[in-house]
Each structure stands twice: as C-alpha cells, then as structure tokens.
# Entry
Amino acid sequence: MGRDITHSHFKKVDFDRYSSKMSAELDWVCQWFKQQNNSTEASHNPTIGFEMEMCLVDGEGVPASVNERLLQQLQDTEIFSQITLELAQFNIELNGSVFKLTGTVLRNMQQELQQLYQVCQQAAKAIGCNIVMIGSLPSLQEQHLQLDNMSQMTRYQALNEQVLRSRKGRAIELDIQGAETLKSVHYDVMLESVATSFQLHLQLPFSRSVRYYNAAIILSAPIVALSANSPFLFAKELWCETRIPVFEQAVSVGGYDGAMFGPIKRVSFGSGYARDSLLECFQENLAHYPVLLPEVFDSAIDDLEHLSLHNGTIWRWPLPLIAYKGNGQQRQYHLRLEHRVIPAGPTVVDSIANAAFFYGAITSLATQSLIPEQQLSFEQAKDNFYLAAKQGLKARLKWLSGETVSVKALILDTLLPVAKSGLRQMQIEAEDIDYYLGIIEQRVSSGQNGAAWQRQYIAEHGKDMRALTRAYLERQQMGEPVHTWEV
# Structure
C-alpha cells in the first residue's frame, strides 16, 4: 500500500482534495505514456524482487501476536530495513533486494531469502515463537481475527474504517465451497490477514508491457496449481489455494454507487486483458473504484503519491505499477508487475523454484511471435485460474490449443520447456535453470505440493490443526523441497 498515512478518520473535503490531486497525477501519467510511445527503448535489462509474508506462531503452533516485539528484536540487525509489519500482529513481511534477471540471480535470491528467514527465525525464538511461511495458517481460529490483534499502524486502522464505511455497515460474509463448506460473518477486515503470499516483482519493457501483463494473467492458473499451499481454514478442508477466495471476500468492496456490491471488486482477477496500454488499468482505477484512504500529501505531481496509494488499495492478482528510481532530473520511471498469485512457502528453495518458473515462462510467452492472448479468451484464463485454485494439480484446464488438458501434463510437457527457454533468453546460469526447474518437475510429477502434503498429513494423523502446523514447521526448517516431505 506504499507509504504509511497519518489519519484514520476523513471528511468529504479530504476525498475531494485527494481526487483532485490524483486526477492531476493521472494526467501526468498519460503524458508520460505518450512520451514513452514516441521514444526509442533501450535494450531491456529487467530487475526483479520479492515480498514474503509470514506468520508468527508460539510453541503450540498457535498464532502469536508479537510482531512489534519481533521488530524490536531485529532492530540492530542488518536486515531490519527489510522487515515490515503486516495487518495482523501475527504477520510480518520480508522484502527482498532488487536483482537483475540474469546470471546467478536465482541462487542470489535464495541466499538472501534464506538469510532473512534465518535471522528472523533466530529473533523469533528469542521471544519464544517461530516464523512460518504458509499460504493460510491451519491453526488459525476465528477468535484470533479480532481488532485487538490488528497491527498498530494508522493505515490498517483507516483501511478497516473505510472498508466498513464503503459497505454501508454490512458485515463481511465469508462463503467458501470446497471439500467442506465454510460460512462465517465478520465486522472488520482482519480476514485479510489469513492470506499470506510470496509476491514477485518484474520490471517491464515499456514496448512489451501489455504482452507481459497478459502473459501473467494466462500463467496465473498453472502457477497457482503448482504452488498451492492453503487447503485449510478454521479446520475446514476447502480449496487447494483457499487464500484466493479468502482475500477476495475479506475486502469485499466494489465500485461506485450501484456497483458497490456488484461484480466490480477491489480484489479480483481483473476485468480483462490490457489492449493497447497498461494506462487502461490506471484509468480504470479512477473510473471504477472510489478512494478508500484519502490521505493528502504535500508532494509534487510527478511523485505520484496519491495515484500509488489508490492503486495499492485495488488488489488485482497480477497488479501493474508505476515505479521510479532516483530523484530530480535523474529520476527514471518504469512499469512494474507485481504477481500476487503464489502463496508463501513451503520452503525457501520451493519459493525460488516458483520464481524461476514464473520469470522463465512469462519471458517466453511475452516475447514469442505467436500472441497467447489471441488464442485464449480472458474469460477462459479467469475460469482456469479459479479452477486451478480449487483443484490444484488435479485440475484440467483449457489451454492455447483449445484442448482441455490436465494441469500436470500442461506444466510438464509444455510450460517447463517454455520456462527453460525464457530463462536461457535472460542468460540465467544453466546449472541453476536445471536445478530450480527440476524441483518444479519433481513436485508436479509427484503431485505433492504444499496443499497435497497438508491434506495427506490430516488424512494420516487426524484433524489436529496445531499438530499439522508444528509438523509443517519442522519440515520447513529442515529446508528440503516439499515433494520430498514424508507424511
């Protein structure tokens, strides 16, 4: 959501001033897009990054609301600036460095994520708890989702107040149909803290940004299938990746007026492929989504503070961003993609394998001469996504050929070679390509991703969610890929 804010209560004049500033920034962005369209683009050396959201648990595997104590414990470490508080006091986020997508980048990412994980784990143990990377925490119960457990940051308090205001006092209703059925009613946004992700960032070449964005949409289904790690919530067996419907329903606020409770949602797969430019997404943000957090900043138009904050309250699964580095006349703007589909965990090496697959496959699809989005409708890509989130590696998807294929065959026979080609195109070390994509191949061949392992554990040992959490954490700390885990 960008920078923090200082107010949690707003008046109509705040919304009016904010909208005026945001409109001015959008006008600036429109001019920037025109300039980019008329400029000659240099060769693209993309940069990438990641965010890993994590849970804190006590010795019993139960959520531990101690993220501020953990941050204090980390204050004198070299990673302190890379840790931020998440919505709930039992969540934190690890922020990776900026890497160039070339050479030894994958092993470099693994080394950094491993270091972040280990330092945080040591700090957590010093205060009597552990950190765990998982899409949704099995031991979480509804009693943990109280406002008393919300992190003490103004932006979260403001988000809660404004979401409820936008819903005109209506409760947030969770309704998920999976292997079992879960229905629940909540009067705040704490449900959002249920979903923890491994978010991947990719700087986009402007001339191909539409292709990359659309490729991310198409790839979301196979990626969520192979990475699924959230089969349980409140002791109910639901989707393979239950994090998807939870997050969509946790901030269930739509568009203006009559669309408030209609099909336009702030957390969604999006409304369609980009056609001519990613500018369409930013224009849609202003046209269809009311402002939630109208904090007015004393900033220049080209700082894009208001546009960015608003964009940070609209959660498309593949999310386009405008970013910049440098200051003054040296400032350089670029388009960036934030891919929010992948859940956290199960291990550091599994996460980097997921990243390798994503970066390779998107590079290949976005640069091939045959345009994928002309072969698969957006509606079908969307249907594929939700089917894969429900069924994981057992799903059957309609692919570019028009044929319906098992997602396992699609990944093994089609997408792994595509991902390998894309990583070679980026001149990734051949040894690393084989190693990380080999993990994906073995995971998919075995059918054992995080969701499958959790379900097998419960089938073998009974529905003890604390025991599942402890067993999962023990294996995570050993660090071996999930396809090798024993039940």
The chain is about 45% helix and 15% strand. Residues 285 and 311 are 7 Å apart (CA to CA). Residues 12-40+152-474 form a domain with the Creatine Kinase; Chain A, domain 2 fold (CATH 3.30.590). The chain has one domain: 12-40+152-474.
